[in-house]
């Protein structure tokens, strides 16, 4: 799936925001090392695969956030981030979940992929996941 709303301008905007907040962070440097040798096509494929998780979470919104199926999806999401971007321990996952619901633009974007309420659903599911 190609997410047209997540265009290059939006990616550059998010990249600048992340760099200003996390530029001196070890995890950010790990991400830069990961992405340095990757083709633009491969980066785009991984970004699309990442965004696909929000669509999948959106389909699970009718489930309880603590259910086995939702919690398995959170684990899959965490593993995907670790395999494709940077080490994503529970603390990092918690920080990401806060970013997803901090600011209406992030929430609106995630909800545009997975449906209304997806950003909050993901945040709640991650909270349950890390509390286990």
Q: Report the radius of gyration as a whole number of Å.
A: 14 Å
The assigned structural class equals: mainly alpha
Q: In total, how many beta strands?
A: 0
| Major sheet description | none
What CATH architecture label applies? Orthogonal Bundle
Percent range for β-strand residues: under 5%
Stretches where pLDDT is under 50 for at least 5 consecutive residues are 1-5
Shape: globular
- Number of structurally distinct domains: 1
State the end-to-end distance. 33 Å
Q: What would you note in describing this structure?
A:
- The protein is an all-alpha fold.
- The protein has one domain (8-131): Globin-like.
- The chain is 76% helix and 0% strand.
- Helix 5 (90-101) runs antiparallel to helix 7 (118-131).
- The model is unreliable at 1-5 (pLDDT under 50).
List the helices and strands and how they pair.
Elements: H1 8-22, H2 26-36, H3 40-59, H4 68-84, H5 90-101, H6 104-114, H7 118-131
Helix pairs in contact: 3-4, 3-6, 3-7, 4-7, 5-7
